[in-house]
Amino acid sequence: QVQLVESGGGLVQAGGSLRLSCAASGHTFSRSNMGWFRQAPGKEREFVAAISRSGAGTRYADSVKGRFTISRDNAKNTVYLQMNSLKPEDTAVYYCALDPLTTRWVPAVSPNLYGDWGQGTQVTVSS
């Protein structure tokens, strides 16, 4: 079973930056697409970004395109989310997730297709 541990969250002013990390245990990381999702209080979990197993393919939610960058280091079993120009509406708990279907070519945006999840890290953006 894969364990995912997020870190890097915190409190930042609007316009600031944060870099989230997600460290994975287990041997499936390099063969799996990875995703970042977020959930604000009272809202459903929503897609933020996803990356293919090689790192060559990425997808972003329209709300973060141009501000967030997803990347991965397979040698370190880690996926990152660089968040720039943060806005108060980015405030949420951020989760990383692993897609167990190693044959999926295009990274998925639906949380239902991800099988392993981290515990989440809080990101709070003040205005």
Descriptive report:
This protein is mainly beta. 0% of the residues lie in helices and 45% in strands. The chain contains no helices and eleven strands. Strands 2, 4, 5, 6, 9, 10 and 11 form a seven-stranded mixed sheet that branches. Strands 1-3-8-7 form a four-stranded antiparallel sheet, with no helix packed on it. The protein is globular. The model has no long low-confidence stretch (mean pLDDT 96).
CA(first)-CA(last) distance: 40 Å
Oligomer: single chain
How much beta, percentage-wise? 35-45%
In this structure, how is the largest beta sheet organized?
Answer: 7 strands, mixed
- What pattern of helices and strands is seen along the backbone? EEEEEEEEEEE
What is the radius of gyration computed over CA atoms, rounded to a whole number of angstroms?
A: 13 Å
Q: Provide the helix percentage.
A: under 10%
Query: Which regions contain 5 or more consecutive residues with pLDDT less than 50?
Result: none
Which structural class should the secondary elements be placed in? mainly beta
Mean pLDDT over the residues: 96
Any idea what the shape is?
globular
How many helices? The count is 0
How many runs of DSSP E, i.e. beta strands? 11
